[in-house]
Design goal:
By secondary structure, this protein is mainly α. The chain is built from 13 helices and three strands, in the order ααααβααββααααααα. A three-stranded mixed β-sheet has the order 1-3-2. Strand 2 and strand 3 form a beta hairpin. The relative contact order is 0.07.
């Protein structure tokens, strides 16, 4: 195909175009159709076709992009993403999931099915591809929402994976689960998800390993590096926030053990004091009855027996003082334990959307 005709039917005669803007026959301007424009049109058509095909194959990505462009994340959500060390790719998925930090009533409505399984700090709802986070206002639990946000973001990542990629990552997750089978923290955490189906277990495994455990296989670390700039710092934040509960638990258990020891000693010594006091009273009565007789014995014998009775009384007095002191210590420790229980109740109320705050 030629852009211009140079044959006898040409309106400008049969002379070929010589490249000048005018012909030799009357200097009539020659218009040249631009080949580049036609090529560009075809290129644009091809590009549109490719783009349309990509949109057809990747509708979720397109929707995510529109959501990221058109929705401003909550300030708290943006802060969580920053503190969790989310990469740009992770933030994209997190923000595309429209993370919402919600109070008790709103959160319970958003995560009603998940909340029935136990204490829930966040949920990812596949139907709307949305993340909901329970608002924790207790400063002692700083960081817990950050880890929860990262956990739910990984759910959103998993939901957006193709089946092939899920199978590949699932094999790595299961291998890690086998390696951690004797780790109490891992076993306790996964026990919370007993009864869920295989698909649900995998997505939970993906989120738990990614936010709570270090030292994973190189392949898994490479996978999670796509979503976290410093995953070890995120896991450290998880450990710190969980330590609020574990420290109180350890202190309470130590105090309970101390109270049990005190109680056992007090009870045993109280019984001993009672028995020995009764025996001493009987011996004193016998001593008095015997020494009422004028021929009971010498002064030296009297003094010796009396001194022995007084020594026994002194031992019992010391035992009584010890019991009294330990009872006071027991009462103090019991009060401390009660204070710890109040703190635990307060913390539990702070993370359990189904419980009213303490004092209400």
């Amino acid at each position: 195909m030629t852009l211009f005709s140079s044959g006898p039917d040409s309106p400008y005669g049969g002379a070929p175009y010589d490249g000048s803007p005018f012909t030799s026959s009357g200097d009539v301007p020659q218009r040249r159709r631009p080949r580049r424009r036609r090529v560009l049109v075809w290129a644009l058509v091809a590009l549109v076709a490719v783009a349309a095909g990509w949109v057809f194959v990747n509708p979720v990505r397109v929707t995510d992009q529109i959501l990221v462009w058109t929705h401003q994340p909550q300030a708290a959500a943006a802060q969580f993403a920053q503190r969790a060390g989310m990469t740009d790719e992770a933030r994209f998925t997190f923000y595309a999931s429209l993370p919402s930090i919600e109070g008790r009533a709103e959160f319970n409505a958003s995560c009603n099915q998940v909340a029935e399984q136990g204490v829930t700090l966040g949920c990812y709802v596949p139907l709307g591809r949305a993340i909901h986070l329970f608002e924790i206002t207790d400063a002692r639990l700083d960081g817990m929402q950050v880890v929860t946000a990262a956990h739910e973001m990984l759910h959103a990542v998993w939901a957006r994976m193709g089946s092939g990629e899920q199978r590949e990552i699932a094999a790595l997750l299961e291998a890690e689960a086998v390696r951690l089978a004797d780790d109490p923290a891992f076993v306790d955490q996964m026990a919370l998800y007993d009864g869920i189906d295989a698909a649900g277990r995998l997505t939970e495994l993906h989120s738990i390993l990614g936010t709570e455990f270090t030292g994973l296989s190189a392949a898994l670390e490479e996978h999670y590096a796509r979503y976290f700039d410093d995953r070890a710092a995120l896991v450290a934040l998880h450990v710190t926030s969980e330590a609020v509960f574990s420290t109180l638990q350890t202190q309470a258990e130590a105090l309970v053990a101390e109270l049990d020891t005190l109680r056992a000693g007090i009870e045993a010594d109280s019984q001993r004091y009672s028995d020995e006091s009764a025996a001493l009273s009987a011996d004193i009565d016998a001593f008095n009855a015997r020494w009422d007789a004028p021929d009971a014995g010498s002064q030296e014998e009297f003094d010796s027996e009396r001194a022995a009775l007084l020594d026994r009384q002194a031992v019992l007095d010391a035992l009584y003082d010890s019991i009294t002191a330990r009872r006071a210590e027991f009462d103090d420790d019991a009060a401390k334990l009660e204070q710890m229980n109040v703190q635990v109740d307060d913390l539990n109320a702070a993370i359990d959307s189904r419980m009213p705050p303490v004092g209400e």
